[in-house]
Design goal:
Elements: E1 8-13, H1 21-35, H2 48-55, E2 64-69, H3 90-98, H4 101-116, E3 121-126, H5 132-143, E4 148-153, H6 162-174, H7 206-212, E5 221-226, H8 232-236, H9 240-255, E6 258-261, H10 266-278, E7 284-290, H11 312-328, E8 332-339, H12 359-370
Parallel strand pairs: 1-2, 1-3, 3-8, 4-5, 4-7, 5-6, 7-8
Length: 371
């Protein structure tokens, strides 16, 4: 059966356990305004799913079956309720993450897809990228990990344990002039030593977990548009904190993961994608879009904004190549997710510059090209 003949079942999953003090401050400000009746909930975008259903020019089509939202505790969502105010503290979110509870939400997504969606196509619209692991868990069980090619558009490789990432951040803060680690000047806004994140399943590390568990195979994983691939400068560093990051990253490449880093010569990115797909034999394809892959280009509504992403035109060219690959190899697209959407900036227009967030336009183009 051609995948275009299947139903596409759309659902929301707005888990947002970000412990960034600035993000938490934005949530507190929102609650204060909500308490003063300064927010009209009839027009307010509460989470990405609501925003897409309201403003998308694609998802209103009949072939997209809207299922609603997976239940999530309100204090863990982008715009909490007034009664959640006392929970909005970095330490509370860090305790949540350290407890392993993020993985529990991925298990909920896995069960949801098994019970509510399969054998149709899941289209998840959400925030925390870790939930992609849950979607892949359900699909891997049904189709077999050896048969699924996973392609992720992302500015970051989400397979790095917390202790390695934190050590690299500490190094970057000490050596801002020596190594460029995704806008290290932003590190001045955070007290890195106060961060108490332990190694656990998170949006920054979930790929390590699902690879180790055999949910996906490293040789069947492609990442397009990564900004944190360790270049020659980083690989030449002698500090152990940098070396550990480089080794962890490149070990995945040795295991078979294909990285297509973002670069100015975008034609080379497209050529590498074609070459990477040329010898693939898998029967099924899963696509994951982290909107930060185009941050500061057309996208202002990404949860992490710490580099200049790739243009929408390059992203669409890559999607066309993947669609052609699916057609020519008689493969089947079995799932899609669109993650790391920043609700506060979604569809907003900046007053001073007049620049408008085009995240929804990017997502519409992505979905339209595939379906």
């Amino acid at each position: 059966m051609n995948y275009l003949e299947k139903k596409i079942k759309v659902f929301g999953a707005a888990l947002d356990p970000n412990d960034d003090p600035l993000k938490i401050l934005a949530k507190c400000t929102y609650i204060n305004r909500l308490a003063q009746n300064l927010i009209d909930l009839q027009i307010e975008i509460v989470d990405p799913y609501d925003g897409l259903l309201k403003h998308s020019k694609i998802l209103h089509q009949a072939k997209f079956v809207k299922l609603g939202k997976v239940p999530i505790e309100s204090w863990l969502t982008p715009k909490p309720k007034i009664e959640d105010f006392h929970l909005l503290d970095p330490r509370t979110f860090q305790e949540f993450t350290n407890s392993g509870a993020v993985a529990e939400y991925s298990i909920k997504i896995e069960s949801y897809i098994k019970e509510q969606i399969l054998p149709d196509i899941p289209l998840m619209i959400g925030v925390d990228h870790s939930l992609t692991g849950g979607a892949l868990g359900a699909l891997s069980e049904k189709y077999g990990p050896e048969n699924i090619l996973v392609i992720i558009f992302d500015a970051h490789f989400d397979g790095i344990p917390a202790h390695i990432s934190l050590d690299l951040a500490r190094y970057a803060k000490e050596h801002k002039e020596e190594v460029n680690v995704l806008s290290p000047q932003q590190l001045e806004l955070h007290d890195i030593e106060a961060i108490k994140i332990e190694d656990s399943y998170t949006c920054a590390s979930f790929l390590e977990y699902i690879i180790e568990e055999g949910i996906i195979l490293p040789e069947n994983l492609i990442l397009f548009g990564v900004q944190d691939y360790p270049g020659d400068e980083m690989q030449a560093e002698k500090d152990k904190r940098v070396l550990n990051f480089v080794k962890k990253y490149l070990d995945y490449e040795k295991k078979g993961v294909s990285f297509i880093p973002a670069q100015k010569e975008t034609a080379k990115m497209i050529m590498k994608l074609k070459e990477t797909l040329a010898d693939r034999q898998t029967s099924f394809v899963y696509l994951s879009l982290d909107v930060d892959v185009s941050m500061f280009e057309e996208v202002l509504a990404a949860r992490f904004m710490n580099a200049i992403g790739i243009k929408q035109s390059i992203l669409m060219e890559a999607v066309k190549i993947i669609k052609k690959f699916i057609t020519e190899t008689s493969s089947e697209l079995i799932g899609v997710d669109i993650m790391e959407i920043e609700t506060f900036m979604l569809n907003k227009k900046l007053k001073k510059s007049g620049e408008k967030d085009k995240t929804i336009e990017l997502i519409d183009g992505f979905i339209s090209e595939l379906f």
